[in-house]
Amino acid sequence: MNEEIVLCAANSYEQKFYLNPEFDSLPENIRQELQIMCVLYTEDVGGILMLVFDEAGNLELKVDHEEGDFFFDEIGSVLKIKQLQQTKRELFESLELFFRVFYLGEEQE
Prior knowledge:
alpha+beta, 3 helices, DUF6145
């Protein structure tokens, strides 16, 4: 079974941001950074951006858009995701460590 846990998501269609309540223990500045990052992404290219943890604790950025959405920028989306993976690498690695320790119970050396 492939279990994914959503950390957060932003939806340009409903203009909403969602943070999984299970992650309310994250520091306020991290929660704000996630919200700003996700909302700016959807404002820029449209669609829906989700940050999800896979069963091994890896953080993945998943993008979706409604069928027939001619305003969704697929090329811009790919470029923006690559940019986020570079500029937010430290944040993403910290979130993965947090998830592995507190949710998967892994011990860190």
